[in-house]
Amino acid sequence: MNQKNILIANDDGIYSHGLRALANALSELGKVSVVAPEFEQSGVGHGITVRRPLRFKPTKLEGLDARVQAFRVDGTPTDCVVMGVHRFGKPDLVVSGINYGPNLGYDLTHSGTFACAIEGTHMGIPSIAFSQSFADQMDYSHSAAFARSLAAQILERGLPSKTVLNVNVPTGIPKGVRVTVQGTHHYEENISERFDPEGKTYYWVGGIPTGDSEADSDYTALEQGFISVTPLKLDFTHREYLETLRGFLGT
Ligand code: MN
């Protein structure tokens, strides 16, 4: 069997523990290359860097499997996938994460972790995003083990075109795996207004997580201690609505 090539990226930055755990776990499956942002880029979504140069720097990571090559890029998560494919050629699989914190429901619209998998999918490469719930002590062993088994299956079976997988792993020992839908979980706006030491106003944008109550959602699976695997389509067109819209626009 030909050796498989796997490209790993993330949005937490090259020094993230989740990234290392993922790279080490997948190094059993093929040749792993890591290309990750030099600095944390959580929340930047599918942004790319334009009108300034990008640097690609080999990086030594303590505890990283010796077979894995790692590079950091002073750009966005999506830049890392683009640069990785440019440098190493099209891999058999793009994997992103393991993100520090879950990516559920509407989080996917601003998640840099998910954006890496979007970019891979746009390039026609099967792609998976992995995230894990917050804990005081992050233990990535269960999520890394699941990532290895899922990645092995997707390397074997592939994915339908324009289809991307989003995976979330709960804290502790997962009770099992559920295939879920993207829920409606989002954040209620929560902006704090404060004063800096010079008396000028500044704002801290945060949010209060809403959760959702749909039985088959990503949020509910995670809430109940299960790993959630959501297949998403990158074809955004609402085909059922096309005719209605054409009708009232008279086109
Ligand atoms: Mn992140």
Number of domains: 1
| Structural class assignment | alpha/beta
Straight-line distance between termini: 53 Å
Biggest pleated sheet: 9 strands, mixed
**Do you know the CATH topology?**
Stationary-phase Survival Protein Sure Homolog, Chain: A
Instruction: Name the CATH superfamily assignment.
Output: Survival protein SurE-like phosphatase/nucleotidase
Report strand %.
Answer: 25-35%
- Average of the residue pLDDT scores: 96
- Strand tally, please? 11
Q: So what's the CATH class?
A: Alpha Beta
Major β-sheet strand ordering: 3-4-2-1-5-6-7-11-8
Q: Count the helices. How many?
A: 6
Shape: globular
Task: Set down the secondary structure blueprint.
Elements: E1 5-9, H1 17-26, E2 31-37, E3 56-58, E4 69-73, H2 77-88, E5 93-100, H3 112-122, E6 127-132, H4 141-157, E7 163-169, E8 177-179, E9 187-195, E10 201-209, H5 218-223, E11 227-233, H6 239-249
Parallel strand pairs: 1-2, 1-5, 2-4, 5-6, 6-7, 8-11
Antiparallel strand pairs: 3-4, 7-11, 9-10
Helix pairs in contact: 1-4, 2-3
This protein binds manganese (II) ion.
Manganese (II) ion is lined by residues 11-12, 42, 99-100, 113.
Q: Can you offer a commentary on this structure?
A:
The structure is a single chain. The chain has 251 residues and is of the alpha/beta class. The chain has a single domain (5-182, 213-249), classed as 3-Layer(aba) Sandwich (Stationary-phase Survival Protein Sure Homolog, Chain: A), CATH 3.40.1210. Helix content is 27%, strand content 27%. The strands form 2 sheets. Strands 3-4-2-1-5-6-7-11-8 form a 9-stranded mixed β-sheet, with helices on both faces. Helix 1 packs across helix 4 and helix 2 packs parallel to helix 3 (112-122). The longest helix has 17 residues, at 141-157. It starts with a strand and ends with a helix. Residues 11-12, 42, 99-100, 113 line the site of manganese (II) ion.
